[in-house]
Design a protein that fits this description.
Elements lengths: L13 H17 L9 H8 L3 H7 L3 H16 L8 H17 L1 H12 L11 H19 L7 H18 L5 H12 L28 H13 L6
Helix pairs in contact: 1-2, 4-6, 5-6, 5-8, 5-9, 8-9, 8-10
Length: about 230
């Protein structure tokens, strides 16, 4: 059975404490309100942070939700470093599945999805770019150890995107399903041997309309929406 993510430790420093208090207030408010019902005065009252401070730092509820979504992945599913690619992937995938099945993960999804801007020209979010960089570092460590490894695109499309898809549109995936996705990734033909060239990440053209969305673009959109538009574990 999946467990709820543990609350983060209260940070040190005034700026970090203010951010923590405001984020915590938004998460608490979203537990029994819709995003449309959020307001700066409500957040100020719940957090104990003055309205002027919130307006000065974030300016609006959409900007605050973007910041909350951007902080989500690092808070709920930090990247492991176990010494093996299998251990790293299993640890990361099960942490994502666990966080998405708990109340904090659901609220992060609501915050992220609420701030997606419509339109075919929407680019990758800042949190997606940062998380992609971190996952690439994980894969590079595996290659440096002499392990076979997939591309970061395959990791996003075969493991990460399905986890967020399940969380958004159906029952969240459990740890067993997350490990099954890792098995499928490591067995895929794209998982390369050390020393062999790997294709660069594809640049996907913007679709002309909903009917023109390719599978890879859908994956990027699901992943992008799940992690937030910053718009970031």
């Amino acid at each position: 059975m999946a467990t709820s993510p543990q609350p983060v430790q209260r940070p040190h420093g005034r700026s970090a404490r203010v951010r923590y208090q405001v984020h915590r207030a938004v998460i608490d408010l979203l537990a029994d309100r819709t995003v449309d019902e959020l307001s700066i005065p409500l957040v100020a009252e719940r957090s104990g942070v003055h309205q002027a401070t919130i307006y000065r730092r974030w300016g609006s509820i959409p900007a605050l939700l973007s910041d909350l979504a951007a902080a989500g992945p690092a808070r709920t599913s930090p990247l492991p470093d176990t010494g093996t690619l299998r251990g790293d992937l299993d640890g990361y995938a099960t942490a994502v599945a666990d966080s998405l099945s708990g109340p904090l993960g659901v609220l992060m999804l609501r915050a992220a999805v609420s701030n997606i801007r419509p339109g075919p020209d929407r680019g990758p979010s800042a949190i997606l770019l940062e998380r992609t960089r971190q996952l690439q570092d994980m894969l590079d460590r595996a290659e440096a150890r002499g392990e076979s490894r997939p591309s970061v695109d395959e990791l996003l499309e075969l493991v990460v995107a399905p986890l967020y898809f399940h969380a958004l549109f159906g029952p969240p995936a459990d740890a067993e399903h997350a490990r099954h996705l890792v098995d499928r990734l490591l067995a895929s033909p794209g998982t390369r041997q050390p020393g062999k060239a790997i294709p660069r990440a594809r640049r996907r053209p913007a679709p002309a309309g909903p009917a023109a969305t390719a599978p890879g673009q859908l994956t990027a959109r699901v992943h992008n929406g799940a992690h937030g538009q910053a718009q970031p574990s």
